[in-house]
Specification:
The chain has 665 residues and is an all-alpha fold. Among the domains are: 141 residues; 60 residues; 69 residues, 2-Layer Sandwich (Herpes Virus-1), CATH 3.30.40. The chain is 65% helix and 2% strand. The strands form 2 sheets. Strands 4-3-5 form a 3-stranded antiparallel beta sheet. A two-stranded antiparallel ribbon has the order 1-2. A hairpin with a 5-residue loop joins β1 and β2. The C terminus is likely disordered.
Length: 665
Amino acid sequence: MEEEKRALPQSLIETVNQIASISDYRCTVKKQYCNLARKLKLLTPMFEEIRDSKEDIPEETVRALVSLKEALGSAKELLRFGSEGSKIYVAIEREKIMNKYHEVTAQLERALCGISYESLDISDEVKEQVELVLSQFRRAKGRVDTPDVELYEDLLSLYNKNNDSADPTVLRRLSEKLQLTGIGDLTQESLALHEMVAATGGDPEEVIEKMSMLLKQIKDFVQTENPNMEGPARENDVPLGGGVLVSPGGNHKAPVIPDDFRCPISLELMKDPVIVSTGQTYERSCIEKWLEAGHGTCPKTQQALTNTFLTPNYVLRSLIAQWCEANGIEPPKRPSSSRANVSTSACSPAERTKIQILLQKLTSGSPEDQRSAAGEIRLLAKRNADNRVAIAEAGAIPLLVGLLFTPDSRTQEHAVTALLNLSICEDNKGSIIAAGAVPGIVHVLKKGGMEARENAAATLFSLSVVDENKVTIGCFGAIPPLATLLSEGTQRGKKDAATALFNLCIFQGNKGRAVRAGVVPTLMRLLTEPGGGMVDEALAILAILSSHPEGKAAIGAAEAVPVLVEVIGNGSPRNRENAAAVLVHLCSGDQNHLAEAQELGVMGPLVDLAQNGTERGKRKAQHLLERMSRFMEQQKQAQAQTESQPQSQTQQPQPSYSLGNLADT
């Protein structure tokens, strides 16, 4: 039974992985099914942390996870049919299909609501991610998406007519909308209908017979329009009208929306993207609702927002429109019909000429010319947004990247600082990464002068605002030299390194890298350094690392509990909150840390934090107080049992536990 409990999280992970492998949903349900699959994939980190936890899973939680497993199984079957089932059936019976979809999502919501997350040894970030999934399920309740009325009416018009009266215009629309334009598509649809016949025991219902007749009409039309189309045995791509190519499998795939074009809150294509103070982009209506609900943090990174200004992301809006047009999708309606090309700089011709002259110097073989040109570009990029756009448009980024490995330290410093200034423009971030800048920036971080190293760290922070860049930067070995700068740098260097490390460690895979780079001992030293001025940054990073098993172990080994108790008692509101967050993770499954904190007098400060702290601080303090209470009760019970044993008992004495003498402390 115990083995089954431990195997349960892994089976949940495998089910979600199977769901993630399903693709190519039928066009009539594509939006809903893609959204459902994405939401379910967000649950994987929770299952992984439950699997890796050393704490026992409570029986009530096991039952809830079993219910969730059943719900995921239902979702998997639903999604598989949406990918492999008959396209005609899914379109005609869309209402029935969508009713089933809502039943499954309701089942998933009930299962997720039944889990006691406080009883699980999982990080706050994961809890908040699950809460986001739950809120999306709740928002989707009762939401009715408008079906393609024209498609449905076209299907019905043929469904109830003979072959002779079929309108070619209607058949063309159906073949295109249902993506039945190649012999492979038609063959797969025929097989899907045959499977439905087999499921009825060989006695097909009238609806299946009618769908088979409808498929024959579409097939006849497609073959008439494309007389040279060969049978399914053909190995090469089949050219269709308009020069479109269908792969050997015959699947004419609908484009997948890039993740960067989706709002992190709604997971839908953004219509009016705006940037918040952390650099993340959201759909305006979604982030406005988030802010109106009283939240003061960035939903994606959980960083505190320094202000509530929403800056329109014109560059991303333009990219979304271009992508839609390139893929034959109607661009989302925007607040304004004007399409100012904001990625084009307003620099004058004279300024552009100056930039071109500087670029020519960058490509010259003269070290002096390269040094002076890189320095001037550095200053120009710092001056204003128009310059940053114009410099990037002129092709400066690859040239600056090439100078990161120059032996001339001053040129190297100018180049990395110019890239830092250019990265302020959101559109330039992608261009810098695409130019292969990360290895060069890491090289400067390791080998450059102190100012160059500081600016390299700041550049990595700026680039890591984009989530996918966090992965790239971590993979190229940036974290060890950032850890070194955090330990050995100037005050400014330490700040730059800390902000970069904090941002990078939001990605789970970078947390282990940071711990293995020796960040934890450095952070503990910064916490206790008199007048060091790094307490805020150190605690913020420790709070993120403590949610990782390696981070938790390293912080525990660094004897952090006395320092954390001191901060909970006397620190700033934000530092008290982070110190409590670290202590929650340390005490999860480790009674030694609980006992140590109790001996150090943490109860009083925790009570005060639970009453007067930040909202997150109150939650952490309450969680710790509950654990302390359970721990003390266990110790009292153990002591009472010991005292109740007869003094003359001759059996072998029970082994004493190291925490038994702490029952009354």
